[in-house]
UniProtKB/TrEMBL annotation:
Pfam families: SLT_2 (PF13406). GO terms for biological process: peptidoglycan catabolic process. Residues 1-26 form the signal peptide. InterPro entries: Lysozyme-like_dom_sf, MltB-like, SLT_2. CDD domains: Slt35-like (cd13399). Residues 36-240 form the Transglycosylase SLT domain. Keywords: Signal. GO terms for molecular function: peptidoglycan lytic transglycosylase activity. The keyword Signal applies. It comes from the Bacteria. This is Lytic murein transglycosylase.
C-alpha cells in the first residue's frame, strides 16, 4: 500500500533523492529483460553507498522486470489523438457529470482546499476523474518493479532513477511496502503521484496526522492542489490556454491534449 505516515523533514529527503540520481548512472541501462538482474545488483551497490538501507535494498532485490510497464510506456497512443477524440476516449462527459456530483457532495472539502492552496475544485476533480475514475481504479502493477524497470530502461533512465531513489526512501521509512501496487509507471494513489512528487508535494488533507494517497481522497486532492501551487498556480487567475494558471496544468502532464482536456473539463465542472 502507498500509505504515507507524515514525513518529518520530507523536503530534505527529496533533496537527497535529487542528489542521488546522477550517482546511479554507472549501472548499465538496457532495452530488454536480459540485463535487468545484473543492473539491479550494480544499482543496489550504488544505492547502498548512498545510504539506502537494507529494507529498501531487500525490496529492490525482489523486483522483477515489468514487461507490462514497458508495453505501456511504448504505446501511449491516446496522446496522439485529436482533442475531441481524446476526450471521447477518456469519457469526458461522464467525468464532468460525476465531477459535478463530487463537487456538491464534498463542498466543504473543496472549499477548504481552495482556501489553503488557491486551487478551485474543477481542475482537481478533472484530474481525479481522469487519472483513476475518482479513485475507482488505482492500478495493478507492482510500484517498485515498475519504477525499477523504467530506471533500468534506456529510454528515460535518468528521470526514473530519481523516481526509484525516492521510492526506496519511502520503503526505507516503512511508508511504501514492497508489495504496493499502482499504475504502470509507478504512480501512486487516487491522483497518481510519482514517488518523488509524494516526497515533495504530499500533504495531510484530512488532519489525521499521516499522508495516505491511496485511501484518503482529502490527502490526494490536497496534495494535487499543493502540486499545482508549487508549479505556479495563482489564486483567482484563469486556467484555460493563454491564462496564467494553464502553466501549472502543463506541469502536471506533458501531453498537450491531456492539458487541454483537463482545462476544459475543469471549466465545465466549475461552471
Amino acid at each position: 500500500m502507498a500509505l504515507l505516515r507524515k514525513l518529518l523533514g520530507f523536503a530534505g529527503v527529496a533533496a537527497v533523492a535529487l542528489g542521488m540520481g546522477g550517482q546511479a548512472q554507472a549501472a548499465q541501462c538496457g532495452n530488454n529483460a536480459g540485463g535487468f538482474e545484473a543492473w539491479k545488483a550494480q544499482f543496489s551497490r550504488e544505492a547502498a553507498s548512498q545510504g539506502i538501507g537494507n529494507r529498501a535494498l531487500n525490496a529492490l532485490a525482489g523486483t522483477t522486470y515489468a514487461s507490462k510497464t514497458i508495453a505501456a510506456d511504448r504505446n501511449q497512443h491516446s496522446f496522439k489523438l485529436t482533442l475531441q477524440e481524446f476526450m471521447q476516449k477518456r469519457g469526458s462527459a461522464t467525468i464532468v457529470a460525476r465531477g459535478k456530483k463530487h463537487k456538491a457532495s464534498n463542498a466543504k472539502l473543496f472549499a477548504s482546499i481552495e482556501q489553503r492552496y488557491g486551487v478551485p475544485a474543477g481542475p482537481l476533480i478533472a484530474i481525479w476523474g481522469m487519472e483513476t475514475g475518482f479513485g475507482s481504479f488505482l492500478g495493478n502493477q507492482n510500484t517498485l518493479s515498475a519504477v525499477a524497470t523504467l530506471a533500468y530502461d534506456c529510454r528515460r533512465s535518468e528521470f526514473f532513477t530519481d523516481q526509484l531513489y525516492s521510492a526506496l526512501q519511502l520503503v526505507d521509512r516503512g511508508v511504501l511496502t514492497a508489495s504496493a501496487q499502482g499504475a504502470a509507471h509507478g504512480e501512486i494513489g487516487q491522483t497518481q503521484f510519482l514517488p518523488k512528487n509524494v516526497l515533495r508535494y504530499g500533504v495531510d488533507g484530512d488532519g489525521d496526522g499521516r499522508i495516505d494517497m491511496v485511501n484518503s481522497k482529502a490527502d490526494a486532492l490536497a496534495s494535487t492542489a499543493n502540486f499545482l501551487r508549487g508549479h505556479g498556480w495563482r489564486p483567482g487567475a484563469g486556467y484555460q490556454q493563454g491564462q496564467p494558471n494553464y502553466a501549472a496544468i502543463q506541469g502536471w502532464n506533458a501531453a498537450g491534449v491531456y492539458q487541454k482536456a483537463i482545462a476544459l473539463m475543469a471549466a465545465d465542472i466549475d461552471g
